[in-house]
Amino acid sequence: METSYLKRSNRLLNQRNRHQLLATVIINLICLAHGIGIGWLSPTLRKLQSPDTPLQFPISVKEISWIGSALGLGSMTGNILSGLFLHRIGGRLCLLFMALPHSCLWLLVYFAKSVDYLIVGRFLAGITGGGIYIIHPLFLSEISDANIRGTLASMVMLSVNIGILIGYILGTYLAYHLIPLIVFICPLCYFILVFIFIRDSPMHLIHKCNFAAAEQSFRYYRNIKEEEESLSMMAIGEFNNIKDTLTNDDNKPHKVVLKDFFTPAAIKGYGMAAVIVIANQFSGLFTMLNYMSDIFAMSGSSMDPNTSTIIIGSVQILGAYVSTILCDVFGRKILMLVSSGGVALSLTAFGFFTHFAGIYDLTDWGWVPVAIMSMDIFLGNIGLISCLFVLMVEMFPLKIRARATSIAIVVCSSLVFLMLNIFPLCMAKWGLPATLWSCAGITAICFLCFLFFLKETKGKSMLDD
């Protein structure tokens, strides 16, 4: 394993892949900013519900559920907009647009006069998040080599997770009105760097019949200069192979027709995508991040809820980082199996502790909820979270890949809205243990589906079905 990791690390940093890595780092700045917006909410909600609220208006439990779930509605909107415009205007312009709604989030947070400001702000943040989860994986799959594609694509969630931890820390220790002024720098830097360094992908330019620009883009992302004759001839051969695959004999792009969405390969892709999306959302991993402080307050833990949340944020980064290391070493399937099985067991254990904490005095065991939730978040991030967008791109046939991925992410975002809306209501009505056991049961069923039906896609060419 160590040898495989060192070889993969060298591939990331070698001359051919440097521009791909640079592009990944730049476009993930908005993922970092999006993560800050997610993580900031958890400690901030507790402040807004306290007598020392920094705002001049009260917030009810119902309004909290809408502040949380507005992100899901915005995400669906961002998915749909991205799916509509990605092929029309290209990845570069879509990436630039992602900075606008996220910037508006922090303006609305700073000038909030009512709870509606926060709801609209979270909705706009969701538009950016929804766009990220479609544009980034597709764009990276089109500019990256197959042997590092999984690593680069999984960096999307690593960046989001780093942002979530930063958001937890900022929301816990800084004044409410200071945070927007600091975080606003992130989307601004992102916009400038994307404008300067990012080019449209070769595949998009081929679809637009702009073959000269497509070849230049291919050379740019492979970091091949014209004076490097041997590499240049190799690049021309690779580029022509891509162009021939994406076009007809008359050099016109292949047209997508309705029957392309109903091939056996497409139908199999829909089925597995449905299982992956259900596991991703009904495991509660993303939902719990938004309400983490409240969950720890209800769990029977004696540790400070905000401190526990920061610990979880750190563990989450570790899980996402491990995924970037292992995704192109062991493959996607084993990570999904370990992740889903571990999450199901962790949620079950967390539910039992919370249940017995309401009956017995478990003060001396107050560290247990943090330990179990750390395991849950770590295992969730090595597969269910980080591999989601890698698999979404790789499992669909070439001709419908972008559209089918967009549809799958729209469904995922609708479940984000549903879970963010009902999770606090379920905790209030059923109690935390029953809510967690329900999530564990669904995740266990998804584990069995992965075991018997998920196919490995490591090293798959993006030109193959």
From TrEMBL:
Q: Does the keyword Thylakoid apply?
A: no
Q: Does the keyword Transmembrane helix apply?
A: yes
Tell me which GO cellular component terms the UniProt record holds: plasma membrane
Where does the record place the Major facilitator superfamily (MFS) profile domain? 23-458
The protein's superkingdom reads: Eukaryota
Checking InterPro entries in the record gives:
MFS_dom (IPR020846), MFS_ERD6/Tret1-like (IPR044775), MFS_sugar_transport-like (IPR005828), MFS_trans_sf (IPR036259), MFS_Trehalose_Transporter (IPR050549), Sugar_transporter_CS (IPR005829)
Per UniProt, what is one GO molecular function of this protein? sugar transmembrane transporter activity
The primary gene name is Dgri\GH14820
Q: What is the protein name for this chain?
A: GH14820
Stored PROSITE patterns: MFS, SUGAR_TRANSPORT_2
Q: Where in the cell is it found?
A: Cell membrane
